[in-house]
Amino acid sequence: MGGVSTTAERDRVPKQDRSRATRQRLLEAAVACLAEHGWAGSTVAVVAERAGVSRGAAQHHFPTREDLFTAAVEYVAEQRSTALRELFPDGPADRRAVVTALVDLYTGPLFRAALHLWVAASDEEQLRSRVTELEARVGRETHRIAVELLGADETRPGVRETVQGLLDMARGLGLANLLTDDTARRRRVVAQWAELLEESLG
Amino acid sequence: MGGVSTTAERDRVPKQDRSRATRQRLLEAAVACLAEHGWAGSTVAVVAERAGVSRGAAQHHFPTREDLFTAAVEYVAEQRSTALRELFPDGPADRRAVVTALVDLYTGPLFRAALHLWVAASDEEQLRSRVTELEARVGRETHRIAVELLGADETRPGVRETVQGLLDMARGLGLANLLTDDTARRRRVVAQWAELLEESLG
């Protein structure tokens, strides 16, 4: 079961914790693998080796390739959501800082990994429904955080769509950062759109 | 050379026109193929068959796979730019109509094809520089059209970034439409951001 851990470690760490640690290593390795090698280059075997976990242990946690990679993208998305909330522990904050942090969600390895998964899902039937469902869940959660941190009042007409459009822009900025370092241009766009939001949300 | 054309056709149509028609058929088939089957499923042979052109003729026009697919995405992007300008022959037009038309650029088969090419380029060195250059060219042209049709005055501070952000949003909306039909939500987002643009651009 335990992968690379030694007998001594196994004696010290309770079995349930070891299992959870193995699972996390697999999920993190899966996202890194997807971001670097794409769907075609990402198999359970490659991820197990990268995580230093036996193939049997990997298959115990994730019976199929689809299970592993959708769980991985969801796990890292949850981690990033938590990190985002922790950045602004007092709730609504300076709009420019919040927009910057939201856009940052879409420019790292998680976005690259998710993008590979989306594109693969658009061609593969058995992946499609899983990824669609995952994307809806992650999207709802990101929208919830954005509304909260921007202090947006969604009972006002148009506010919901303003926030949605902002997150669509963030996704587009992530795409623009895929092949080249788009940081300088992105900063200027974020600064300007934060101002537009300020005027619109009041 | 001539692919599916008959001898009679060959006699009627000058050689140069036949060659141009073959080239166009290959480019259109390449984009359709990329949109449907992704980079991994898109080879010169598959495209040649789809276009009803011999493999030799395809290779005469496009010596490498990279040549064919980058030329195809560029060709269809140019066609769509021309169609967009023709939609608004009198220049600056109703902002909501223009934003809708700009966003439409990112929700069809061309965007799906380009997305597959971008994602493949992010993993493959020999494709990367070609696609980066292509993306910059197409992006500049789309920005130029957007500024013109929105009647945006880029000498005013922030206007350039407002338009850039709008095109990033359009790209993000394209991504959101990849796995599900996002039309209804997209319409609401476009309506709201067209209003915000109206207020901002004056």
From TrEMBL, chains A, B:
Domain HTH tetR-type: 20-80
InterPro entries named among the record's database cross-references: Homeodomain-like_sf, HTH-type_TetR-like_transc_reg, HTH_TetR
Annotated stretches, region: Disordered: 1-21
Molecular function, one GO term: transcription cis-regulatory region binding
Segment forming the signal sequence: none
Annotation: DNA-binding region: 43-62
Annotated Basic and acidic residues bias: 8-20
PROSITE patterns xref list: HTH_TETR_2
Pfam families: TetR_N
Keywords for the protein's UniProt record, in alphabetical order: DNA-binding
Entry-linked PANTHER family: HTH-TYPE TRANSCRIPTIONAL REGULATOR PKSA, HTH-TYPE TRANSCRIPTIONAL REGULATOR RUTR
Name of protein: TetR family transcriptional regulator
